[in-house]
Prior knowledge:
- The structure holds 2 protein chains of 2 kinds.
- Chain A is of the alpha+beta class.
- Helix content of chain A is 22%, strand content 45%.
- In chain B, strands 2-1-3-4 form a 4-stranded antiparallel sheet.
- Chain B is elongated and about 65 Å long.
Amino acid sequence: MFSDQKATxxxxxxxxxxxxxxGRAQAVLQGIVGLIVLAGLLGIxxxxxxxxxxxxFTSVPLSVTYQRLLRANAPSEIIIRASAxxxxxxxxxxxxxxxxxxxxxxxxxxxxxxxxxxxEGITYRFVLGRERTGTIKLRLAPRLxxxxxxxxxxxxxxxxxxxxxYP
Amino acid sequence: xxxxxxxxxxxxxxxxLLRITTMRIMRSAxxxxxxxxxxxxxxxxxxxxxxxxxxxxALLAAATLAGLHTTLSHAKRLWPTIGMVTEGNPVVIFxxxxxxxAKMRSKRVDPRDVMAEVRQxxxxxxxxxxxxxxxxxxxxxxxxxQESS
Lengths: 167, 149
């Protein structure tokens, strides 16, 4: 540490009070940066362990895996899996309009055989084939930040998926 | 999580590539150095963010890079090897009228780079120079000859 006399002998304008305060603020900001990175690794901003969740329909053997924490303008997926053979070779999935106000479904994989738009939302019809199982992916493009709920309907049963979209 | 991992990987890759290509970023970068820096900047961003155009994604990537930089800056104080790997050591390339060609080749510095620094130092001739050192930050330090009394 320089003595005051030595420091002022050089032509600078030391502002020790400011530097001390800035040093503390910098340490706090560095801590916040560390927390943001940790939160990102855990998936608090989407795409990770704390964000990925699964729900299942009770009347049909279908499970839905999705990110409950999304980012606006960052693509995501809702994955629907048939864990056991379904009653029919075709599967109709309805997506409620509450989700479509805040996000778009850009594509599906496999492609839907039929798509029907109604005031309540969109209904996709998929052909599963003789095995009556498979995985369907709905590619999601969140647009508006905030809370929303995706409602998926299969065989008359509604499954609510609460979502939060970051800016 | 993907953004943090991709940003970490790209940061380390760009750091390594900059270390082996150009060190003269802040003080004496030439168009040759600037071309590398501009292209690295352009090439590194798309793989980190991909289709993600969200503010949160950009914030997360920026925070990851800031966090890595801060961590490495602290780490090199604790473990000098990290500083040597990421930044290198000072190297004397000219001393007592003699060039060290091998070190100049390894640092990719030519006499014109040194002469530019000599002139900036206000010296007119190489004979006025005691030594020239390529610092760990890529800058070239010129030590003038002490005037004999």
